[in-house]
From TrEMBL:
It comes from Amycolatopsis australiensis. Its main location: membrane. InterPro entries: ABC3_permease_C, Macrolide_Exporter_MacB. This is Putative ABC transport system permease protein. It is found in: Cell membrane.
Amino acid sequence: MWKLALRTLRLRKGGFLATFVAVFFGALIVSACGGLMETGIRSETPVQRLAAAPTVVGGQQTLKLPEDDPATLDPEDKHKFENATLPERVRLDAGLADRLRAVPGVTEVVGEVTFPAQAGATSALGHAWDSAVLTPYALKGEAPKPGEVVVDAGLGVAVGTTLPVAAHGTVGQYRVSGIAEAPQAMRDAAVFFAPSDAERLSGHPGRFDTIGVFGGDAAAVSAVVGNAGVVTTGVDRGALEFPEVNKSGEDLIVLAAVSGGLSAMVMVFVVAGTLTLSTQQRQRELALLRAIGTTPRQLRRMVLGEALVVGLLAVAAAVALGPVLGNWLFGRLVDNHVVPDVLRFEQGWLPATVAAGASLLAVVAASFVAGRRAAKVRPTEALAEAAVERRWLTPIRLITAILCFAGGTALAIVTVAVMTGPVAASTAGPAVMLWAFGLAAISPGVTKVTAMLLRWPVQAITGVNGRIALRNTRVGAIRTAGAVTPIMLAVGIATANIYLQTTQEAVSNQAYTEDLRADAVVAGPGGLDPAVVSRVRALPGVESASEYVTSTVFIETPFDSNQDKDGWPALGVSELTGNAAEVPETLGRHVGDTLSLRLGDGTPVDVRVAAVVAQRPGFERLVLPAGLLAPHTTLGLAPQLLVRAADGVGTATLTSRLREATAGSPVQVGDRAALIAAHAKGNEVGAWVNYLLVGMIIAYTVISVVNTLVMATAKRRREFGLQRLSGFTRGQVLRMAGIEGGLIAAIAVLLGSLVAAGSIVPFCLVVRGSVLPSGPAAIYLVVLAIAVVLSLAAILVPAWAATRGRAVDATSIGE
């Protein structure tokens, strides 16, 4: 049977090419997503600034959160914890460097601080000159004294030049005492200050970002550091130099898992549909094999053998090209700031193995489904079975549909009854796949029913051609369903995901603006100098001005069962002082209660609940004093000042006065619209990722649609020839085919819209109290237009090719 399978490949090139394409693109996407996941897991980052230090000590960026209330657990029980990543840079006490110098074998210990700086028109990072040995930099000139700087050679500044440098909210004039040259390419330009200047400008005196250790044993260093930090060597040092890689790696893992899993599920249906259609078109051949004595087992082995040969070839090509696609996708993520550019793309053998296994498993499952019906018929019924489509509803299809519809219904109920805010997308999103797979399992029957519902309008518009097209659609329901299913998947997934994203963005912007009273904003990329804040508050025409700080905090006591490893969003404002806090009513606290928090850099602090307020569900946050929150952020200062105009003062007048008052300071002044636009831009990263995922899946389903329709239409050459011999003109045949394409598109659009509604409606009810999503209707119209054009093009082009010759010649060609 294997030898027969290999021989049939040469005679059935069209059908097997279609299977090859379906498997290839599915395996390619899964392999690429596997590479992204491996990159996130490894999170390998080349060391740059710390390359010369064999051992690097950094702050502990992980916080252990108990999964259960410690007060209710038996002290002898083993407590379960989950690790949360602290969002702000965790710094080390400078005294640790002195203790490390006493470790036997240690020859040198160097503390390092890093802070944003603006050297002239160039963004750079500021450091103390004594930490240049960690790279090491070569110096041309002299080391900086207070009031002097050594600049990176890439800045193109000459020694002796006076350079304006903005850092920590202030601008100073510094004499360039030397030029530093790095031994390798660096992501960020460097500006080196005298140690006393660097300590002042870092905003965290007496603290180091990292400590480089030369000599000694890493184990001995770890023993001294203990729980005060983490000790790294080799490639792990890069994670301390670029701490943002840790969070980005986690996000990349989730992104790859979702997109890869979704693609794998779509691939199963696409490959199954392609193989089923290919096998159905060979019913006469398979029937004859059964009639001459081929056993069901042999027939199944032949179908499996054919599918495996094609699948192995497709998987081999996909695995070879998977890293290419993965690297391209990674590049797009870097370009759109989803992941930092210092992260290195890595793809080894494991993603290729997983992609190959998943793809071949899909091929085996699809070939089993495709060959099962042909193998079950009795030889005496074989030829009759080949003549017309018969029973399509099998127990497997029915059970699959029931389970998927039950799962989709359950997720819809959970979305409405349990979820709040944007988190509702975590259940609404998967629901669209369950609804789609449920309909796909019974698509022949659903296609027949939908075609019957469309009968009257189609006949009224298209006449006799429409009646024949409707009859073809109903009689060839399995064939038609093979084309309807991928379009339905594409329409449903695209519509649901895009409108979930647009609705989420709209609700987020609304939540941000509904309590926003500011008329203007003063923003400082390196933080706002308190002196600037004081000048703005004293400015005529300013009614109030509040610092605006964002971070994340974690509640330690009392135990919060609803808190996950993402913690609580925190907002710092000037209206609160001391240790007062405003909390949402959903937290279940009362005025006067005390909360023990861990701030974004891990610092413990107790706050007193001064107010309990109702906040928009899903957007709850803790409001703390800016003076308490800002020092424990990576920047160390408030990055924004929100300003409200006094009565009678217009926005233009206010912003003009603000620019005059802040002239010479490293700040930017914008109006309310600029503030809202900046917030909306922060959502663009998530939107872009979502659109990328949708784009990949749609591209795959588009290929599948073209694949299926071209294969199905090309096999109807004999049918078209008979129609032409019976009196149809070529134009009538093409019009009939076009109407069939329109019917396929209409059925797929209706079903896809139904699938999308099963996800969108529960989500919109939760986040905006309406069944309709936010977003332009043009999105839906574009999706529909693509589906229609795709269906018509994929059926008319091969139909045109199939009707080019003489009708009598077409009827003489075997099936």
